[in-house]
């Protein structure tokens, strides 16, 4: 967390409120922040002078003079973002407003090692940066979501399952050298949580966001901020032991992990064992959509297994919402099963106002979160005037 993030009423906080739509005028900011109008005006003027806000047009009057409207300029700062899956790389640019554009996806197998992945990433991000600068935008940094454990302090990948050659790989530093830009690297479930929170649930303070795809992960939003824990592994539910997994060996080296029975990879393997062609989460979703009974049963069982683990999390953490993202969240039987188990297993007090929904951002959620993290934690927010 940067110093700018820690200070309510800082220039970074003011910019964030305008960017996410919580405030559209100085009067709105005064009400949101509870600060003196003179303090808010000073912060706004700093941001206008820095070119990060514009003030024009008039809003509706609340009994006095019409307020001038604040907005983030379209030609302002952007971050480059990449959301890496085990079999794809999705890239795009993210603006301070939270919009993602120039989005592209390329198939790529991360198990081939870091060399080919970094080569492809650097090539695509460098090209993306050129297009943004040609459009008059300032590129502030790069945010990367990686499908495995990441040390947020060093930017190193830490012992990812099924990915030989990646352990202790300095992904942040290697990309920064290639691109000449500051780079932030985080776990893909963490950036998914950031993207969903900012785009769809900004008013909520406590969320659990699950990524159910080829693997399983989870990000935690606490008091409106991403909670990473002591070493960045907060929210890792994939290697929680579940009874249904019995003695099944897991790629992490343990046995009986949730991922061995509830991940897309596990479901696809079980379908192939029955002679049903399924190699990806896309194949699984297609089979469920077409009513294939075995696929539907496996997906529903996966939802119940995920729900059983999340019930402990919900009772312990008491979030306002559980959001299901990742490719498998497109399967309604999985979402319904998670919802049913949570209401069945959790304390009534924990679920009386609990929202349980599928992702609203779809495949762009990780991009939005990675870009937003880069904008907040790299130069744009941390070097604002007055912070």
How would you portray this structure in words?
- By secondary structure, the chain is α/β, with parallel strands linked by helices.
- It has 3 domains: 3-71, Winged helix-like DNA-binding domain superfamily/Winged helix DNA-binding domain (Arc Repressor Mutant, subunit A); 77-193 and 365-382, Nucleotidyltransferase, domain 5; 203-362, 2-Layer Sandwich (Nucleotidyltransferase, domain 5).
- 41% of the residues lie in helices and 20% in strands.
- The chain has 15 helices and 14 strands.
- The chain has a 5-stranded mixed sheet, sandwiched between helices.
- β7 (150-151) and β8 form a beta hairpin.
- α5 packs across α6, α7 packs across α14 (365-377) and α11 packs parallel to α12 (332-345).
- The chain starts with a helix and ends in a 5-residue tail after the last helix.
- The relative contact order is 0.14.
Question: Helix and strand layout, with pairings?
Answer:
Blueprint: H1 3-6, H2 11-19, H3 26-33, H4 37-49, E1 54-58, E2 68-71, E3 77-84, E4 88-95, E5 100-107, H5 114-134, E6 138-146, E7 150-151, E8 156-157, H6 171-179, E9 183-187, H7 188-200, E10 207-212, E11 216-222, E12 225-227, H8 259-262, H9 264-273, H10 281-289, H11 293-317, E13 321-325, H12 332-345, H13 348-351, E14 355-358, H14 365-377, H15 379-382
Parallel strand pairs: 3-6, 6-9, 10-13, 13-14
Antiparallel strand pairs: 1-2, 3-4, 4-5, 7-8, 10-11, 11-12
Helix pairs in contact: 3-4, 5-6, 7-14, 11-12
């Amino acid at each position: 967390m940067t110093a700018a993030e820690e200070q309510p009423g800082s220039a970074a906080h003011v910019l964030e409120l305008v960017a996410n739509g919580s405030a559209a005028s100085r009067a709105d900011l005064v009400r949101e922040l509870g600060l003196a109008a003179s303090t808010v005006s000073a912060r706004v003027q700093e941001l206008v002078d820095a070119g990060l806000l514009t003030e024009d047009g008039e809003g509706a009057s609340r009994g006095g003079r019409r307020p001038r409207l604040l907005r983030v300029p379209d030609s302002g700062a952007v971050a480059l973002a990449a959301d890496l899956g085990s079999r794809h790389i999705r890239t795009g640019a993210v603006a301070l407003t939270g919009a993602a554009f120039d989005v592209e996806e390329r198939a790529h197998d991360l198990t081939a090692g870091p060399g080919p992945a970094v080569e492809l990433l650097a090539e695509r991000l460098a090209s993306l940066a050129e297009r943004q600068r040609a459009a008059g935008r300032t590129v502030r940094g790069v945010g990367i979501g990686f499908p495995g454990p990441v040390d947020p302090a060093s930017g190193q990948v830490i012992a990812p399952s099924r990915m030989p050659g990646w352990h202790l790989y300095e992904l942040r530093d290697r990309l920064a050298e290639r691109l000449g830009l500051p780079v932030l690297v985080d776990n893909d479930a963490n950036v998914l949580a950031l993207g969903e929170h900012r785009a769809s649930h900004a008013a909520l303070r406590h969320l659990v966001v699950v990524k159910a795809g080829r693997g399983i992960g989870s990000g935690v939003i606490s008091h409106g901020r991403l909670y990473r824990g002591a070493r960045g592994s907060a929210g890792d539910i994939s290697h929680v032991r579940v009874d249904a997994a019995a003695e099944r060996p897991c790629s992490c080296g343990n046995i009986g992990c949730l991922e061995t029975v509830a991940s897309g990879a596990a479901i696809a393997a079980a379908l192939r064992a029955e002679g049903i062609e399924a190699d990806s989460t896309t194949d699984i979703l297609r089979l469920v959509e077409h009513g294939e009974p075995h696929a539907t049963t496996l997906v529903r069982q996966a939802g119940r297994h995920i729900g059983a683990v999340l019930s402990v999390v919900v009772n312990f953490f008491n979030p306002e919402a559980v959001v299901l993202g990742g490719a498998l969240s497109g399967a309604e039987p999985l979402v319904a099963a998670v919802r049913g188990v949570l209401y069945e297993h959790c304390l009534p007090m924990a679920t009386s106002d609990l929202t349980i929904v599928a992702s609203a951002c779809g495949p762009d959620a990780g991009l939005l979160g990675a870009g937003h993290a880069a904008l907040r934690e790299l130069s744009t927010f941390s070097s604002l005037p007055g912070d």
